[in-house]
From TrEMBL:
CDD domains: ENDO3c (cd00056), NUDIX_DNA_Glycosylase_C-MutY (cd03431)
Catalytic activity: Hydrolyzes free adenine bases from 7,8-dihydro-8-oxoguanine:adenine mismatched double-stranded DNA, leaving an apurinic site
Protein name: Adenine DNA glycosylase
Cofactor: binding comment: Binds 1 [4Fe-4S] cluster.
InterPro entries registered for this protein in UniProt: DNA_glycosylase, Endonuclease-III-like_CS2, HhH-GPD_domain, HhH_base_excis_C, MIG/MutY, MutY_C, NUDIX_hydrolase-like_dom_sf
Pfam families: HhH-GPD, NUDIX_4
Gene Ontology BP annotations: base-excision repair; mismatch repair
Matches recorded under PROSITE patterns: ENDONUCLEASE_III_2
Lineage: superkingdom: Bacteria
Summary of the function given for this chain in its UniProt record: Adenine glycosylase active on G-A mispairs. MutY also corrects error-prone DNA synthesis past GO lesions which are due to the oxidatively damaged form of guanine: 7,8-dihydro-8-oxoguanine (8-oxo-dGTP).
E.C. code: 3.2.2.31
Record keywords, A-Z: 4Fe-4S, DNA damage, DNA repair, Glycosidase, Hydrolase, Iron, Iron-sulfur, Metal-binding
Length: 350
DNA sequence: AAAGCGTGGAG
DNA sequence: TCTCCAAGCTT
């Protein structure tokens, strides 16, 4: 039996979350805002996104303003949010859309843009343009797996769950209210059909939920466990001149933290570095002092950095490698990822 | 198509 | 401390 779309829409009308990128009932969020929020929300919580979203919109009120901005500035505005390829794709995407002259409104046209995959294309189409499609994100996968009691483990079950989710969309009420229906599914997953301890008592779809009937809602969806992440080691150097400025450099255009600003340092490897070996990678000869360690967990590795600091009189009187000088006041505007901000904080900066 | 790609918060 | 998680995309 197909759960009733109108039951969900009624529930949504009463319990919808008030979010910065969500228009009041009856209103419509501009596609630029929908798109920006969707990119920021990829693998990122609402609480984390909120301050970034409002800051980003004040800085780039229109997609044209974003398109014209230097990539460095966009990365700086994104610093701390993670998954920095999103920011690079966002910028490239803004330029493509600005060149088009209008925001694409169909799933295939959206899908062709950088940083927009199957999920995001459907989300923008449904939310901003009312196209009757269901965006299948983690919320919808969870809701669907419980509704139909699908215990095939993710990510193998992804296609099956997408097919089942499409069944939800066969009702006229769902198709006629595509924007609300999509967001209602998100809210159901975020507030009722939660990963742990779902509140099935309050769920508008509880009478039709197969997992609830079997008492296995909390066990779904099943996920294949992932392997342990390797531990890596590195060292970085906080070099200051007598004016207090810091020596920084830009990371390579590909790979981890691509294009972001960093402290100069060693590469990151599985084997720990001896002090002597680490210091041979220092940006200058100086009296280096070990400040301490920073541990940072990335998606696929754990990194331990040894932080050294030293002071010299003038940067230009030393043979420094690639890099640039940055005043302490200007650090905030740099595209410094969180791991680097931790290192700077340990050395007493920022 | 499996792996790479950030971060901070909750339990 | 540790594991899992949050509106996934790209190669």
């Amino acid at each position: 039996m197909i759960p009733s779309a109108s039951a969900l829409l009624d529930w949504y009308e009463r319990h919808r979350r008030d979010l910065p990128w969500r228009a009041p009932p009856g209103g419509r969020t501009p596609p630029y805002h929908v798109w920006l929020s969707e990119i920021m929300l990829q693998q990122t919580t609402v609480v984390t996104v909120k301050p970034y979203y409002s800051r980003f919109l004040s800085r780039y009120p229109t997609i044209e303003a974003l398109a014209k901005a230097p990539q460095e500035d966009v990365l700086a505005a994104w610093a701390g949010l993670g998954y920095y390829t999103r920011a690079r794709n966002l910028h490239a995407c803004a330029q493509q859309i600005a060149a088009l002259g209008a925001f694409p409104s169909t799933v295939p046209a959206l899908r062709a843009l950088p940083g927009i995959g199957d999920y995001t294309a459907r989300a923008i189409a449904a939310i901003a343009f009312g196209v009757p499609v269901v965006p299948v994100d983690g919320n919808v996968e969870r809701v669907t797996s419980r509704l139909f009691a699908i215990d095939t483990p993710l990510p193998a079950a992804r296609r099956l769950l997408a097919q089942q989710a499409a069944i939800l969309n066969t009702e006229p009420a769902a198709q006629a209210n595509a924007s609300d229906f999509a967001q209602a599914l998100f809210d159901l997953g975020a507030t009722i059909c939660t990963p742990r301890a779902p509140t099935c008592i309050l769920c508008p779809w509880q009478p039709r939920c197969s997992a609830y009937a079997q008492g296995i809602a909390e066990k779904l969806p099943v996920k294949t466990p992932r392997g342990a992440k390797p531990q890596k080691y590195g060292a970085c150097f906080v070099l200051r001149d007598r004016h207090g400025a810091v020596w920084l450099r830009r990371r390579p255009e590909k790979g981890l933290l691509a294009g972001m600003t960093e402290l100069p340092g060693t590469n990151w490897r599985l084997e720990a570095w001896s002090e002597q070996e680490a210091l041979s990678h220092a940006p200058a000869q100086a009296e280096w002092r070990e400040v301490g360690f920073v541990t940072h967990v990335f998606t696929h590795l754990t990194l331990q950095l040894t932080v050294y600091d030293a002071q010299i009189s003038e940067f230009r009187s030393h043979p420094l490698g690639e890099g640039f000088s940055c005043s302490v006041q200007a650090l905030e505007a740099q595209a410094l990822p969180s791991v680097m901000r931790k290192c700077l904080a340990l050395a007493g900066l920022s």
